[in-house]
Amino acid sequence: MPPLIQLRKPFPRRCNVRNITRSNFLAGVEGTKLLMPALSPTMEEGTILKWLKREGDVIAAGDALCEIETDKATLTLDADDDGVLAKILVPEGTSGVKISSLIALLVAEGEDYKAVEMPADADAGPPPGDATVSEGQIHGVSDTVQFSSMRHAVGKDSGVLSPAVRQLLDTHQLSAGDILPSGPHGRLLKGDVLQYIQEGGAKKSPSVEAKVPEPTPQAQTATPAPKFVPPATELQQQATYTDIELTNIRKVIAKRLTESKRTIPHSYASTECNMDHVMKIRKDLQQEGIKVSVNDFIIKAAAVALKELPDVNASWSGKEPQRLPDIDISVAVATDKGLITPIVKNAIGKGLVEISENVKDLAARAREGKLQLHEFQGGSFSISNLGMFGISKFTAVINPPQACILAVGTARMTLSKSLKPQAMTTVMLSSDGRVVDDALAATFLRSFKKNLENPLRLGIL
User: Which Pfam families match (predicted)?
Assistant: First the structure.
């Protein structure tokens, strides 16, 4: 007699049936990668100071995403397209974030940001790539910084697509390969898609065949012999110390100063300048309500001397000296995070009052970390003044690729040969011997001294 209950045979597994639990569409949302950009030519890493948006926040083009401390200043990373901040991968306060590292994920508006898929490189971060932002895209805290987002797709649509662009393409069933991109590095922007839809025509973009580099055999390196380490003395074992955390700015300063002293043949020359006329004219201007500093006179005197001797207004290109067309003077400003040198542009074309206003504005924004890149990158000549600290004289390290830096000490009272009191200041010129020889350096100092001791030569206002 057959059993009352017959067990069913297992349902045959069909090879073309997809396991829906592994479907990318159902398992999660593919995010767009937000990478740490290079916000200055010398930047290698940065610090995420603060996230200005939170996970789940809707982002519009131009919205500030986070504040980043670079090797020069604090800048913001702003979005250039719409979307939603899905996942923050690098928390605020994290330092030493390498450029091109993955810091966040974005999705298109309307997608479930909580279901964003975590890429395999979320922890390690991708190798350094094309995440450099051009100078025209770097601005201060309130300006826009464009970021590069990476998305890996299949077929000819593979490329750099923002969440908003992907959503438009999917909604209108369009192919990215049929639309001519206008963004940087051939990036397809939202405006390109909208224009394509409005025109209703096809615009073919030139295809670029990716070349796969051939694998190269790895060279076998010999294991280096262990270095001899002398045993620590009793005094060394008992010594204690406290590590001082370096900001990105101080790291770059240390690196650049070391390179400058190692690679640039520094030459030094100094002279004494009588400041009596400067002090008198400055006092007369103050009585008329015009406030200018001694440093403003020094900047103008240097600019006039550079115009008279254009070969000093030069830099070293790596192979030969190059005379610079503009007299842009970098002025050293001390900040809590390190020394920064904002630039007084076209100093020769400005009077003392305009120079004074420029310096005050630049110095204030330098201390707040709000300088724009073009305001401290470049310059043709540097001035460092420690007179306000009572330093009588010192030597300064050249800021490459510039050829010279002028170190200015305090004005001190001395007696002249006729036993009359006079205010004297020592200035020390550090020059690149490859660009400015000793004779030219001496001629420059003689011209600078003449300008400073006879302020009427400066045009004053």
Answer: 2-oxoacid_dh, Biotin_lipoyl, E3_binding
What one-character DSSP code corresponds to residue 380?
S
| pTM for this entry | 0.58
Residues 61 and 74 sit within 8 Å (Cβ to Cβ): no
Query: Residue 57 and residue 86: Cα distance in Å, rounded?
Result: 8
> b or e along 214-237 (b: 16 or more beta carbons within 10 Å of the residue's beta carbon)?
eeeeeeeeeeeeeeeeeeeeeeee
Predicted confidence band at 184 (pLDDT cuts at 50, 70, 90)? Answer: low
DSSP structure class, residue 174:
-
Reference 60, options 37, 82, 28, 88; nearest CA is 82
Nearest of 189, 108, 120 to residue 148 by alpha carbon: 189
Element (H, E) at 66: strand 64-69
Eight-state DSSP code of residue 172: T
CA distance 422 to 90: 59
pLDDT of residue 25: 42
**Residue of higher predicted confidence among 129 and 423:** 423
Distance CA 255, CA 321 (A): 23
d(CA 68, CA 84) in angstroms, rounded, equals 20
Cα distance between residue 385 and residue 273, in whole Å: 14
Per-residue pLDDT of 100-112, as tens digits, reads: 889 998 988 888 8
Relative to beta strand 64-69, strand 74-78 is antiparallel
